[in-house]
Every structure is written in structure tokens, then in C-alpha cells.
Amino acid sequence: MTVRYMPGFGNDFETESLPGALPQGQNSPQRPAYGLYAEQLSGSPFTAPRGTNERSWLYRIRPSVRHTSRFKPVEYARWKSAPNLDDHELSLGQLRWDPIPIPNEETDFLAGIRTMTTAGDTQGQSGMAAHIYVANASMVDDHFFNADGELLIVPQEGGIRVMTEMGIMEVTPGEICIVPRGMIFKVELMDGPVRGYICENYGAKFTLPDRGPIGANCLANPRDFKTPVAWYEEKETPCRLTVKWCGRFYRTEIDHSPLDVVAWHGNYSPYKYDLSTFSPVGAILFDHPDPSIFTVLTAPSGEEGTANVDFVIFPPRWLVAEHTFRPPWYHRNIMSEFMGLIKGQYDAKEAGFVPGGISLHNMMLPHGPDATGFEKATKAELKPVKLDDTMAFMFETRFPQNLTRFAAESEALQDDYIDCWTGLRKRFNGTPEGDWS
Ligand SMILES: O=C(O)Cc1cc(O)ccc1O
Ligand SMILES: [Fe+2]
């Protein structure tokens, strides 16, 4: 299958998979070409300011409202939504997990979502949830849309084919994709079992951060975001559509595929991004800047500079800072940090944080490099060093992240994580030189 994309972030795109399917000069003709139905999908209120106003016009074989049955409640017990408080007995702490195992029993992308943390409130359209997905089967006749937020999907193992109403995205480890709130999709596996991370953003959409004095280039450049061209299937066999709506799940039957959009135009669309196209800007003389320099996407909260969620990466880069402790500093943060590792090693942790693993450093909880990393970094010869073959990331939110029972009781939880800091001995010895032996 060849998939094609259009470059640009938040562009007003137009695409048709049959010639002349897209109306020109108007949105809602009396009789659209090919007998298609016109349907608007609004991602912002009608009256949102121009800069944040998002909607697309979909020209489809049947309108979405043509589903056969009423919505009936269904269970996805491991997918939790905020608020989800007091769900477990685990005490407060810095936490880390090994990779969540891929199950042996047949599990598709939807059934394979396990929520680790929730923050904020779906009803108030603020906050987020951090999930792991594990799957070994493709969705075939099952489809899904999430009314509670957009999904930022971060594959860690295996490629996924995200088949949306507006086109197909193939997303492999090292790439990410966004499925907008309300968009119908299903997920096929490209070549085998998969695992990855999801940030379900209940708040305002992810956008590109302002670059300030950095200027017009670097970090994530708009042309590296790719939106799929229109694609449709004419499948007249029974299908299902599952909906997540204010934390609950519902299902309806449809007698055809809901992926039947022949042409569309607009600026509310799915997209993918290759993390290797991120051009990092960093300290080229001394000191360790705040990780916000590595923000790929930010979802604003309404309060200037205080993100609902930031998606931050730690990509391959050169470390050149002179007379500097180069790894992250020890710190306490009002924002809550959920981290994952796509591949390689993370510079604050020598061991224990492995690809597919997770760490959680919640609001105001102290953390930083482990004792071995500290030891190495204080003794290292400070020549230029390339951090290579690595890709870690962080979902950082202004809201405290509440653990789910699944996360708290998971066998993957490392009960000795805090011991990684035990070796940070006293070096203060009353002399200005200190004890750096
Ligand atoms: O805690 C972490 O590992 C993430 C992080 C990295 C960094 O370079 C500075 C601050 C920060 O929170
Ligand atoms: Fe941190």
C-alpha cells in the first residue's frame, strides 16, 4: 500500500481521491458530485478566532449519522479518564516501570490501551491521560472515535497503520501521529505486535510552540508535519463504531465502512511527524537549559506559558557545554512529568529506564540523575560528546497525574526505583574544594 501525504502544519488542505469529487467555490452544493453527502467536522467552536478556528468539509458515501443501531454502553475497563481519583493504595513517590508486556491473547489497539495516569477533567475539557498501548491484532470491522480529546500516538515497537476518515498514516517507531478529537479511525498492524505510548489531550489542541528569539527556523519545522491525502473504502458489510464520550464507551452497528470520505478540504486533519526532523537548539557554551527547548508540540491551557500538555523529546544531540554538569540538574517541578523511552539510553539514567519503560515524576517530587550518572558526569572530560541512537520523550502537564490501579498494581512497577539515588553521598567537607573523590 502506498500512502501519500501533504506537507505543512495546520494548513488549509484540499484532497480528492476521485477527480471532481471536491466541490469548488462552495461547501454545500445542492447535489454533490458522485452522489456524495457533505458533512462538516468542527474542531473548534464556529466562532473561534481565525487563528484557532478549525473545521473540515468531508464528502462521503453516507453521512456519519447513518448508523444502524442506537449507541449501547460497552466496557473498556483499562482505559480510564479523569477524574479518576483514589483508585489505588500506592503511596506517593517517584515511580518507574519496565515495559508493559504485549499480551498473548488476541488484542487489538483499542482493547490494548492501558491507562497509567489521568490528570484534569474530561468534563471541563482540560488535562490529559497517559496510556500504553499493546496489540497483536489489527482492527478489521471495528472503528473508533474519541470525543474526549485528541490522541498523540508515540509508537515504541512495531509500525501501525492509522486508517482515518481523512486518509491513512503509516507510523513507525521514531515517528508520532495525532488523531484529532472526534475523528473516526481504526489501527492495523504493519508487520507484527506493537507497543507504544498515547497522550490523550482533553484540552485545546496541540500546536507548535512560539520560538521567541530562536527565530523562524529550527525545532519542529511546519513542513515536516504530514497530513494524509483522501482515501476511502466502499465496504458494504457489517461494521462497528465505538465511541469514547466523557470517560464512557458506547457502540453502534453500521452496515458499511465509516471510512467512506472520498474528498475533503479544511484545516482540521490528522497528521504525522518524524522526530528525526526535529532540529534541536541548545547550550553551545555552558550550562544545561530547561527541557522546554525540546518542545515539539504544546497544548495551551489558556494561561500564558502554562501548558495543558507539552510534548518534549530528548533527541540525539551534541553535548559541548564547558565547565558544566551536563545531564539534567536535580530539580522539583510544579508541572508533572511522564516520560517514555523509544530507543537507546536516557542521559539522566544509567540503568533501569529501558526502551518501552515509563517514569513518572509528579508535581513537586524531587528527581534527577541517578548516582552512577552523577558520578560519571562530575568526573567526565568535557570534550564534545554525541548522544546518539537515543529518543526519550516527556508528556509534561500543569495538572497532577493520578495513577490508575493498573499502574499502581502492575508487575512492571519497579519497587526499588528510589534506590538509584541512594549513592549520592555527602561531598561537603568544610573545604571550598569539597570531596569529589
Ligand atoms: O526529569 C527529567 O529527566 C526531564 C528533564 C530533563 C532536563 O534536561 C531538564 C529537566 C527535566 O525535567
Ligand atoms: Fe524532570
UniProtKB/TrEMBL annotation:
Enzyme nomenclature, EC number: 1.13.11.5
Domain Homogentisate 1,2-dioxygenase N-terminal: 4-275
Oligomeric form and interacting partners: Hexamer; dimer of trimers.
Domain Homogentisate 1,2-dioxygenase C-terminal, residue spans: 277-428
Record's catalysed reaction(s): homogentisate + O2 = 4-maleylacetoacetate + H(+)
Record-listed homogentisate binding positions: 367
Active site as annotated: 288
NCBIfam families: hmgA
Enzyme class name: oxidoreductase
Keyword annotations from UniProtKB, A to Z: Dioxygenase, Iron, Metal-binding, Oxidoreductase, Phenylalanine catabolism, Tyrosine catabolism
HAMAP family: Homogentis_dioxygen
SUPFAM superfamilies linked: RmlC-like cupins
Pathway(s) this gene product operates in, as recorded in its UniProt entry: Amino-acid degradation; L-phenylalanine degradation; acetoacetate and fumarate from L-phenylalanine: step 4/6
InterPro entries from the UniProt entry: HgmA_C, HgmA_N, Homogentis_dOase, Homogentis_dOase_bac, RmlC-like_jellyroll, RmlC_Cupin_sf
Family according to the record: Belongs to the homogentisate dioxygenase family.
Lineage of the species this protein comes from: Bacteria, Pseudomonadati, Pseudomonadota, Alphaproteobacteria, Hyphomicrobiales
Any GO molecular function: homogentisate 1,2-dioxygenase activity
Organism in which the protein naturally occurs: Nitratireductor thuwali
One Pfam short name: HgmA_N
Cofactor: Fe cation
Task of the protein: Involved in the catabolism of homogentisate (2,5-dihydroxyphenylacetate or 2,5-OH-PhAc), a central intermediate in the degradation of phenylalanine and tyrosine. Catalyzes the oxidative ring cleavage of the aromatic ring of homogentisate to yield maleylacetoacetate.
Region (Disordered) location: 1-32
Membrane-crossing residue ranges in chain numbering: none
Name this protein carries in UniProt: Homogentisate 1,2-dioxygenase
